[in-house]
Amino acid sequence: MITVRAPATSANLGSGFDVFGAALSRPADVVTVEKADRTTIEVTGVGAQYIPEDPEKNTVGAVVEALDAPAHIHIDKGVRPASGLGSSAASAAGAAVALNRLYDRGLSRTELVPIAAEGEVVVSGVAHADNVAPSILGGFTITSTHGTRAVSADVPLVACLPDVAVSTRDARRVVPDTAPMEALVETVGNAATLTVGMCRSDPDLVGAGMDDPVVTPERARLITGYDDVREAAFAAGATGVTVSGAGPAVIAACRDGDRRRVAAAMLDGFADAGIDARAYQTRIGEGTTVLRG
């Protein structure tokens, strides 16, 4: 029996659509696997009632198939589904690391990334790795046609999750098919700034690099109260604010001394819009870790 902790993640970070990702120190899923003749899945925890236990409809089913590793799998959800914090990716990442160890497949963490990404097809229709990569590898990750690169970084963050749901499929439908050249140039410049900021663990550069004029404005319209929450976070000292992944979570970069104030301001922003929310005072953290086994 193997038990692992797989962290929540924030994908895109504004300027890095389908490319950037960051592991969060909290929240996280706990995944336990045990060898079996056929695969069964049990889900408990936050939002468990909304997650299918049929292996063909759960993200971990594709991981089991790819690794040829049937198991009894228990997923204790700490990452709410449809949150924009990589809930489906955390389950897939945890299963990939745990099953690789349980069956002694000998694959590296980097080799497990595309396997875990296949699980994302179940929820979004696309095998994107911007969430599973940081959940497996930790830190700040860049995923491209050249593979995945991970950078260790230490940047304070606040992830504010409103009590509403935005599905990944719906959020992908609003992504524009085209963009003006000026917007693309601006996005590339911001992405470069954010990357340098991560390499330096500089929250000011990271925040400055989060702006994105192409995808984020469209996804922000799906989140009631987003503009007010963003404004409140900046007023409280955030260095950058954007939609986390597909949303509805909103992620803010900040300095350590401002993190609690930023979290409170974001909660107030959603409250003013009549929406309950939860704020995680978090930071860029490590990837999936083995707890037992």
What does this structure look like?
It is a single chain. The chain has 293 residues and is α+β, with helices and mostly antiparallel strands. Helices cover 37% and strands 26% of the residues. The protein is built from eleven helices and eleven strands. The strands form two sheets. Strands 1, 2, 3, 4, 5, 6 and 11 form a seven-stranded mixed beta sheet that branches. The chain has a four-stranded antiparallel beta sheet with strand order 8-9-7-10. β5 and β6 form a beta hairpin. The termini are close together. It is found in: Cytoplasm.
Query: Which CATH class of the largest domain applies here?
Result: Alpha Beta
> What is the CATH topology descriptor of the largest domain?
Ribosomal Protein S5, domain 2
The radius of gyration is 18 Å
The helix content is 25-40%
Shape: globular
Derived from helix and strand composition plus strand pairing, the structural class reads alpha+beta
Mean pLDDT: 95
Q: Segments where pLDDT lies below 50 for 5+ residues?
A: none
Number of strands: 11
Number of helices: 11
Written as H for each helix and E for each strand, in order along the chain, the element string is: EEEHEHHHHEEEHHHHHEEHEE
Q: Estimate the strand proportion.
A: 25-35%
How far apart lie the N and C ends?
6 Å
Tally of structural domains: 2
Organism: Halorubrum vacuolatum
GO biological process, one term: threonine biosynthetic process
EC number: 2.7.1.39
Main location: cytoplasm
